[in-house]
Amino acid sequence: MPITGIYGPDDFTDRPQGHPSTSSRAAPARTGAALPMPSLQWTDEVERATAPLYERVKHVIPSIEWPLMAPTIHAINKLKRERNAVIVAHNYQAPEIFHGVADIGGDSLQLAVEATKVKADIIVQCGVHFMAETSKLLNPDKTVLIPDTRAGCSLAASITGADVRLLRQKFPGVPVVAYVNTSAEVKAEVDICCTSSNAVQVVESLNAPTVIFLPDRYLATYVASKTDVKIIAWKGACEVHERFTGDELRAFRDADPSVQIIAHPECPPDVLAEADFTGSTAHMINWVRAKRPKRLVMITECSMADNVRAELPDVEMLRPCNLCPHMKRITLSNILESLLTLGEEVTIDPALAERARRSVERMMNLKN
Ligand code: SF4
C-alpha cells in the first residue's frame, strides 16, 4: 500500500536549530603513535608481493595504473600486520581498496558484524561515518579509525535525534524503525534498526498496525509495497540512488531486450518498476553470482559494479553510473595515513552508545 504520511524538518516548527550529522567525535591521533612514512617506490619486491592482488583486479584496473597504486597497497598491507589492524571496506569502495587492502568486504552491517569476530585491536573503516559508528557500537573495546571524517551520507545527515523525538510526540505509541544509515544519535532514539535486506521483516516483527520508518523515503515506499503495515516515512533520500530514472533504464532495455536490470531499494519507485530484481547490495551480489547474466545493468554506486566484475569478468556491465562522493573520500593515501598516525579515532559517548547498540542488537537478534 502507499505510505501513510511523510514528514521532514519543515513539518516541525519547534525543531531545534543546528544539525549535527554525527553523534560521535573524532579523537585526535595519539601523541607518539605515529610511524614514519614508508618508501612508496615501485620495486621488484612490490611487484612480486602485489602480483596476486593484481590478478584479482586486472579486469577493472589497467596495468599502466597498477605501479602507481601498488606501492601504497603494499605499504598498507605490511602496516596493518604491524598494527594488528583489520581493514573493512564497503561494497562501494574502489577496487584497489576493496580487493587490494580490505580483509573484510560487504555491506555496512556485514562489516560491523564480521569485525566482531576478528582478533585485531584496530578496525580501519573504509566506508562512511555512520558505518564507522556502527562498527564502534558493536566493537566498543576496539579502536575504530576512519581515514576521512568528512565521509558522510545524505541519508544519515537528513535526520537528528531531536527529529525522532518530535515524531514520537506527534505519533505517540507508534514504534520507530531506523535504517542503519543513521547516526548513533538517531539509533539511540529508535526502537530497532534495519538494513535494506531485512527492512520488511523488521517492520513486521513489531506486530504494530503502523510503524514510523526512517530516514529513506524510497526504502519506506518499497517496504510499504511489501507489507500491510501502515508506514509513516521521513523525507530523506540517498543522493546516489535518487538520481536514477525509469527512463534511463527503459533506454537500456530498448537497446537490448535481453539485458538484466537489478536495483537497490533506495531507488525511486519508477526505477524499481523497471528492475528484474530489487535487493540490498549483498542480495544483488548473490543474485549476480547465482544467475551469471550475460549483460547486466546494476543500479547502485559505480564501484560495486567494478568489484563484482573483478570477481565475475564474464558478466558484461552496462553502467548508468553514479558515484557516492562520500565513499570516494576514502583513498589508499588516507588509509595509509590513518594506519601511520592512528587517526581519526571514532568515539561515542558511552551512555548514548548503549542505547544505540540496543537498537542494532534487537535487529541482529531477530530470527531469520
Ligand atoms: S551511497 Fe547513498 S546511502 Fe550510501 S553512503 Fe552514499 S549517500 Fe549514503
From TrEMBL:
It comes from the Bacteria. Residues 1-34 are annotated as: Disordered. Iminosuccinate binds at H90, S108, Y179, V180, N181, S196, H264, P265, E266, T281. Its main location: cytoplasm. [4Fe-4S] cluster binds at C153, C238, C324. Its EC number is 2.5.1.72. InterPro entries: NadA, NadA_sf, Quinolinate_synth_type2. Binds 1 [4Fe-4S] cluster per subunit. Catalyzes the condensation of iminoaspartate with dihydroxyacetone phosphate to form quinolinate. Pathway: Cofactor biosynthesis; NAD(+) biosynthesis; quinolinate from iminoaspartate: step 1/1. Belongs to the quinolinate synthase family. Type 2 subfamily. It is found in: Cytoplasm. Pfam families: NadA. It catalyses: iminosuccinate + dihydroxyacetone phosphate = quinolinate + phosphate + 2 H2O + H(+). Coiled coil: none annotated. The keyword Cytoplasm applies. It is an enzyme of class 2 (transferase). Keywords: 4Fe-4S, Cytoplasm, Iron, Iron-sulfur, Metal-binding, Pyridine nucleotide biosynthesis, Transferase. Its cofactor is [4Fe-4S] cluster. This is Quinolinate synthase.
